[in-house]
Design goal:
6 helices; 2 domains; globular; alpha/beta; 285 residues; Rossmann fold; 33% strand; Immunoglobulin-like
Length: 285
Amino acid sequence: MEIANQWQDYEIIDMADGQKLERWGKYQLVRPDPQIIWKEKSFPDKWKHVSTVYHRSSKGGGAWSGQDQVPASWKIHYKDLVFQIKLMGFKHTGLFPEQAVNWDWMMAKIQKEKRPIKVLNLFAYTGGATVACLKAGAEVCHVDSSKGMVTWAKENVIASHLQDRKVRYIVDDVVKFIQREIRRGNTYDAIIMDPPSYGRGTKGEIWKFEENIADLVALCTKVLAKDPLFFLINSYTTGISSAVLGNLLTLHLPAKGKVSYGEIGLPMKKSHLVLPCGIYGRWER
């Protein structure tokens, strides 16, 4: 497991009974997490000092209580990267802190190259990977079907003072965009994707991870440069093993590269506990 243990502005303070107590900058949030199946709290007193709590609804969705104790948005830092945090309707904050392990990996790959690198970031969300790659010196094409998420990504780029770097924002269905890039003859040195388990495109296109991921990886190889640098797949889809991602990359990416896969996780402060947060598959030259 790759563990995101270099954060200063984020930490898991405690976790028990399906919930995690986290610090995001100076605010403490409680959010549900299905991986936390144990009942015992390690630090019961810490739960008394909470800014806001997300409560699930039996009818689906949920809501925050104590939301008035936090601002509409605030900034947190990961090393030299800056991100805008906001409370969203479905328990999220606009950032997945465990992804820091992937940011560090791709930044190191880009910086080591000492040449111009073009990165394609698919299902790019609020742009954590986009910010990281821009900071490392790459040119980025950021693609997401949600206009609101792309706007948020722009805010994160500006917050990190990277707005003058080469970045292109695309609001579109990922598959349709890739098909157009193939026709245009555009290629990329690196591809990042974080596909949802289920989703809809800009015109109602249905996406199901298990049914569509293999075809998407195969399609993306057609926009890879002749000497690609890396290909990263991240997933939070329940029931999918990281070995599946490794197999897909082995089948579709050049044999001369190295394939690795595994879990990503977050450590709990003052504890040996680690929260599993997702899986990754990486191909690198």
